[in-house]
Amino acid sequence: MSDAPDGDDSGSSWRTQANRALARLVDASAAERILISLAALVLSVVIGAVIILVSGWVATCDSPFFALSGVGSFCYDPIAVYRVMLVGALWPPYNFAITLKETTLLLFTGLSVAVAFRAGMFNIGTQGQLVLGALGTAMAVLWVAPFVPASVVGGLLLIAVGLLAGALVGGVWGAIPGALKAYADANEVITTIMLNFVATGIAFTLVSEVFKDPNSQTVQTRSIPEFAQLQAVVFDSTVFSMFALVGALALVVGVYWMLNSTSFGYDLRTSGVQPEAAEYGGVDSKQMTVSSMTVSGALAGLGGAVYVLMVASRWQTGIPSLGFDGITVSILAGNNPLGVIPAGLLFGALKTGSLAIEFQLSVPKQLVGVLRGLIILFIAMPEFFRMVGSRFRFGDESPAVATDGGSERADETTDVIPGADDGGDEQ
Amino acid sequence: MSYVESDRKRRWLAGTAVLAVVALFAVELFFPESPVSELVRIVDANYVRSVLRLAVPIAFAALGGIFAEKSGVINIGLEGLLIISAFTSIAVAGTIGGADPTQLHLWVGFVAAVLASVLFALLFAVVCIEFKADQIIAGLAVWLIALGLAPFASKVIWGQVNSPPVATLGSFDFGFIEVSPPVVMMLVSVPAAWYVLNRTAFGRWIEASGENPKALDTVGVDVRKVRYSGVLLSGFFSGLGGAGLALGRVGQFIGGGATMVNGRGWIGITAYLFGNYNPLGAFGASFLFASLDALQIRLQQLGYSIPSELIGIIPYVTVIVVLAFVGRTRIPDAAGDHYESGEE
User: A126-144 vs A188-209: helix axis angle to the nearest 10?
Assistant: First the structure.
């Protein structure tokens, strides 16, 4: 290896890879992207059904839904599982409130991942940014609470302080991998993952050693005052607030506007898709890397803030893996802020539904984790769907043929799965 | 930062580490009463044994990652492969051996785990090579699927995310040091991998497949086959690592949180980046990370009132510092690119 000392463009293959993924996702027409997301979803559901069948065959139960002599008995009925999952996400109203709660939180983490992705970076550290943001919020609110009146005004003040603290801490934590990438060329995929472990360790240590609730056996902070918690409206739920959902939706629109109508958003997108062009256009790409990771981290930190203000009312161990779900949400949404809304809703529903299947059918709720991975896997391979698409159109033509004649965007307007003649990738 | 400069930094870093160790032993020699000496005295045969055991999953993941990435496929799903094989080893050993599996049952579990990991790697290879998937996102998917699937299956089989404990593989006693079979496999695999990569035709193909696939194609070697072998080898090695972790040391599958693998696959990636794709260097880095881990465990046993979670982050912080310091490593030119042979 020592005989290959060529310098500057050498080590960025991971970056090229990210850029290509980005370009592919951004350049594909909206219709194609939606089709690919839907197809990935359908395929995941089908494979999920197979997994349910197999696991039902492995599991033992009193009354299998289906038994075949010689093969064995199957405990879980995939159709029933999906039905319970769907119904359980919407009904009774309490469950729907839980779905909206999950959706609200996923809007933040999904947006966080999407913003970084738009700037050409994989932020896998959303989880850590969220965990520390949540701690920042809890600490700030607990610290300021004695100085404000216990009223609506005081509550609003505390909520503002909490959101600010969450965004600030998350932003700083997100800026670290951004700076490492910009100034030391450390790969952000690895550093953000590592920083997740570090964040969890730091937060746990801080709470268990310094800020622990003295009246509690578990590692958690004291509870924030009730008037500082986001109040429920519409649904009489202790863990969901309509205010948070509306705020999150407004944030989605705000981020969309920022990306598409401000010069910061323009610089961010160009430095993501075409770093050289951005540099030529006078954008300091290093600074841009840090800024976009800071914004991404701040969004994740806001998610942590809302988690504390709306759901947990304190920092405690075992914060759910909202950050990793955010990756799925963003990829499913094609990294489009507006797409984060349906993707977040879908994933919120899946998570609530997974509780229902465990409760009603004793199918482990971790199933949704498997589906999450499958969805990402299928979205990673749009080429697969193009090949399938071309096979369906041209019966016997080999789907692997790369003609390279068709332009990648030739059939933007077709409403079936595109890809009749663009099986080849551009090298 | 140029490659030469980063190489110099790497050497400088290694030199500093050696100097630090020498300094520590000097303190031990001249000031036996100082607290530093207590630290140094941690280092004994037991400590080395513990470090070797802790290095198993990291070093194997690193070896696998080298073969995949050198052949041109970036496999960041190593963590997932470790999880899959750790789970499979315990599940199979427990299923055929019941509550008290014999050594034979454990070995069957071990082999099954390696097979499972290779199968998963095959899936990843097909997705990346045939369907030209984005390797980073697909690798992420492998990790997330494993992270969901293993606890899911644990619950189906055992009714909870953790398995009941089973036995561990019996160890070899070399007189001065007693080591488990996975450790021996690791100590054999590292030089073997180095030899294969640097002294055989297959090693040259792997190298060419990642650096200049067109040239390889021109001399008549099937780039696809070489890349498949690279990825399958990453599955094979990760399988050894995951099963070695579960059956060689822990004797149980733990599926809560980040599972028992707990980021070792990611540390493995950093180990081979730090070792600059050289199996020997990667092993050195794995050894370094594992010794930090062992130090952390030992400090807790000595009753230092440092919270374990805080010491637990030391390896991760080290990884970040190392990455920031060594920075860019020389990744194979065509890694991450899809290769179209132009035939057919």
Answer: 30
